[in-house]
Each structure stands twice: as C-alpha cells, then as structure tokens.
C-alpha cells in the first residue's frame, strides 16, 4: 500500500493479531499451571504408575512392574550406590520397565538394566507419593548473534513449579526419598565437593573419606607400582600445580587404616550379633527376590505365548501369508518361555549347591569381630561400606 493510512491500518491489525496470539498462549499456560497446582494435569507417568478412570494416579496393577520397582529401592537401601544396583541387576540378568510413547499411546517395554534407567527411578519424586510438575526449564543463549534455546535443564527442588506431597500411594516415604537423593549426591566422585563417597573397592579403607587438614579437599589414594608398596593418601590442592611435583600434604595409609579399623571394630562390636542374624536372613531374601522376579517374567511370557497361540488358531489356514508370520511369533514366544524356565531351574540348582548359612558359625564370628574383619574372604568394599 502506498497510502499512509493503509499502512497504518495494516500495522495496527498485525500488532493486534500478534498480541491476541500471545494472549491466547498466556491464558493456555495459566490454565495448564492452574490444573497442575490442583494435581489434575495428566502427563506420561514413569513405570510403576498409571492414571485411573477418574484422573487419579495409582500404582500399576501389573505385579511384575511394581515388584521390580520395589526391588530396586530395596537394593539401593542395601547397597548404597546406584552403580552397585546396576551391577547387581546386570549380574542377575534382570530386565527393567521403560515407558515408550508412540503418539498418544504409552506402553511399558522391558529392557536390560541401564544406568540411566536405574538413576531415573531412584531420582523421580513420584515414587515417594509426590505430584511434581515443572522440574526442568529451558535456557536461551546467543550463538553467532542468534538466540539458541535448549530444554531439559534441571531445577532445584525449591524452584519446581508444583510439588504436592502425599498426593498418591508411594513406593517409599518422602523422608527416604530425601535420604536417597543426599546419598546419590554424595556418591558423585567427579564433582569438586567434600561430601563422603560410596565404597569403590581397592586396598585403601578410607577411599573418598579422608580430608586434607589444610584445604579441606578430598585426599586421593596413590598405590605403589611395585609389589609390597603400601598406599598413600595425598592432596594436590586445587590441581594448579600438577606436573610440578608439588603436594599440599601426603601421609602413609596403613597406619591410618589400622587406627580407624580399631575404632570401627570397637564401635560396632555391641551390634555384631544383630548384624550377623540380619546378614543370614538377607542372604536368603536376596535369592527369593530374584526368583520372584523371574517367576513374574515367566508368567507374563506364558500369557504372551497363549495369546500368540489363540491368534494363530483363529486365522484362516489357507492364508499362508498371515499364518506363517503368526506361527513364527508363536514359536518365538514358546522359546522365551523355555528360556525363562531354564533360567529358573539353573537358579534353583545354584541355590541348592550354594553352602547353607551356618548360624552357629556366624554367631561365633560375630563374637570375634576382629577375626572376621581380617579374614581373607572379607573384601575391601564390604569394609568401606
């Protein structure tokens, strides 16, 4: 338009249209946040939970899913490290549930244990019975003169948009959830903090626990390259002197470990008998938990095999293009059933061949704790824990 009035009119219409779109977006976001504040906004739930008919969060009725979730939290309580839980799950060949979303359909898929899967389950507050929304945010930065947005950045708990405790039944309590988050944070070895660390093995007893008296940083463990050389605890300060041979402080580790061991044995000797009884019960419980998980997986595999058989039986046998595929699926399901039955049988045989826990001998060792501590079969990770 060449006329000034026409350009003014079109400019006003464009500005009003832009403002109207922005207003609609703001109203939509406000309605979403208001619904989330009431705990009614529905979104994809992690494995172990589902929405019921009236829009409430409830535990997944699938016993296999809920059983594996409970087992992970129990193992983390026992082992004290997400990595140790992962190694245990991989050693037991335990599959974990993963939520897979395809458009509007969300289903549970079973995958081999992965570190991020274990960590997501342990870190999600929904398992503590809390309804949460807005745990992540987006950030904008300027790259080559243009704005670049990135999403998925975690926010601290105080900055979450919505946090409603005791909103639905939880697998753990909120106090246990907070204790788990603190333990996971302390176990981060690569972060420059002075928190205590989880047991990582090695000859040194106080790995990740010794602090420098000068700067307060975590002292590192240096092992001798030749046989018979003892380990040392060393502090390098802020690492600005690496390569120059400068050390903040260093000390031999054998005398420190012996002194700490004497104090630990003296402190826990009164509860050694109770710990021995608990260890005997825990050994039996661990085998039973793995067997229960395998039995649930076998039950699901048998259902899938029967479903594949029913599908094959109702197909027209003359339509071989479909019948061949359904027959292949049926055979695959039967092979999975046979594989799981073989795993359970091997697990039972291994449990029968494993030496039984002698409670009398265990109680005798509990009364003589120094002998148990220095026994060749007591590994370093157990002592560190």
UniProtKB/TrEMBL annotation:
The record's PROSITE patterns line, in alphabetical order, gives: RECOMBINASE_DNA_BIND, RECOMBINASES_3
Per UniProt, residues of the Recombinase domain are 46-190
Q: Name one GO molecular function term.
A: DNA strand exchange activity
Residues annotated as signal peptide? none
Instruction: Cite the Resolvase/invertase-type recombinase catalytic domain residue spans from the record.
Output: 1-39
| Stored Pfam families | Recombinase, Zn_ribbon_recom
Question: InterPro entries per the record?
Answer: DNA_bind_recomb_sf, DNA_bind_recombinase_dom, Resolv_N, SSR_resolvase, Zn_ribbon_recom_dom
Q: Specify the domain of life of the species encoding this protein.
A: Bacteria
Q: What is this protein called?
A: Recombinase family protein
Q: Which organism is it from?
A: Candidatus Acidiferrum panamense
Q: What is the lineage of its organism?
A: Bacteria, Pseudomonadati, Acidobacteriota, Terriglobia, Candidatus Acidiferrales
